[in-house]
Amino acid sequence: DAVYIGGKAFSLRVASSNFSYDEMEEGINYAHKRGKKVYVALNIIAHNKDFENLRDYLENLVNLKVDGIIVVTTPQDLVSMIVAKAVNMAKIMNVPIVGIVENMSYFTCDECSKKHYIFGESKLQQVAAAHGLEVLAELEINPETPALADKGMIEKADLSAFDKVVSKLIG
Fold it and tell me: Which side of the chain, N or C, has fewer Cβ within a 10 Å radius?
């Protein structure tokens, strides 16, 4: 009942070419005509020069009538400042924010089952609370997932961490 997509800008999906503005427009119109919602994943690891383009990108999303954005971040301290800039800009422009997802939150050791915070302890809860965002997921670094994707067998991956995201999107 809903789909999420990434645009060519502000997306870190390396293995995908993502969607151009025209492709997003076509896809969003197609989905909306069928009563489906469309959400855009906004991956935030930007530099100051990127924020000039973020305003235009968010404006385009408003014009395309996306149903909302999902802010995707990582645990580093600097990222929380970048998220703050992006979230504030989205709110000013009335772009609905569905919630926030933290990618690469931790790694669970196969031998000791202990969580290791490779990029530092997560501050996702504090960042979300500071901006009134719902935490949708803290995604573990799991080498099995990209390996299965590379083999064309992504359906065999444990994607249970996305359950809350999916529930939120299909409401």
Answer: C
Burial class (CB in 10 A: 0-12, 13-18, 19+), 124: buried
State the average pLDDT over residues 139-156: 87
Distance CA 78, CA 146 (A): 26
Checking if the pLDDT of 170 tops 60, the result is yes
The tokens of 41 are what? 């994943």
Q: What is the 3-state secondary structure (H, E, C) of the chain?
A: CEEEECECCCCCCCCCCCECHHHHHHHHHHHHHCCCEEEEEEECCCCCCHHHHHHHHHHHHHHHCCCEEEEEECCCHHHHHHHHHHHHHHHHCCCCEEEEEEEEEEEECCCCCCEECCCCCCCHHHHHHHHCCCEEEEEECCCHHHHHHHCCCHHHCCCHHHHHHHHHHHC
Which class for 24: exposed (0-12), middle (13-18), buried (19 or more C-beta within 10 A)?
buried
